[in-house]
Amino acid sequence: MRNWIFCLLISTFSTGMLSAQNPDFDAIRQALMDQQAAWNRGDIPAFMQHYWQSDDLQFIGASGVTKGWQATLDNYYRRYPDRATMGQLKFGVVSMEKLSPKSVFLVGTWDLTREKDALGGYFVLIWKKIKGRWLITADHTSSR
Q1: Integer Cα distance of 49 and 135 in angstroms
Q2: Radius of gyration over alpha carbons of the chain, in Å?
Q3: Which of 11, 41, 50, 66 is 20 to 30 A off residue 34, Cα-Cα?
Q4: For residue 106, what are the domain limits?
Q5: Which of 78, 86, 69 is nearest to 138 (CA)?
Q6: Coil, helix or strand for 103?
């Protein structure tokens, strides 16, 4: 019985270690850090490179649902027309769950610091592996 419990504990620990070192999760974390860096240098087009360039992309926010990559890009330009409004962005990852070999559900935080104010909130991203790249296919962002 003790050997069985020991094996169960080792198996649980090993499974946890594998998920912590998941190369797909690492790639997605890196994509988020790339987005953060692009935003902080004022490069919205580079920030958008991690979104699925499709009319089926969905962005859900306070204004409702925006469909399509171009419409999402246009909204970013409207809402953040200059560096002052863009401020400095910081992402945090709360959790990631692999839904399938090509789909990941991510919950995260965002904090935006600007000269005159600070904003923040949460987001839910659906990432899909498309042609070998992890891309955001749906983004639901809310403010605190």
Answers
A1: 8
A2: 18
A3: 66
A4: 23-143
A5: 69
A6: strand
CA-nearest of 110, 142, 137, 127 to 26 is 127
Q: What percent of the chain has pLDDT over 70?
A: 86
- From the number of C-beta atoms within 10 Å of its C-beta (0-12, 13-18, 19+), residue 111 rates as middle
- Residue carrying the six token digits 């935080």: 109
**Per-residue pLDDT tens digits for 12-24:** 333 333 345 799 9
DSSP state of 51: B
Identify whether 10 is part of a domain: no
- The answer to whether 55 touches 68, Cβ cutoff 8 Å, is yes
Tokens coding 57: 């992309």
Look at residue 1 and tell me if it is in a domain. Answer: no
| Beta pairing, strands 58-61 & 133-143 | parallel
Closest CA to 60 of 144, 133, 137: 137
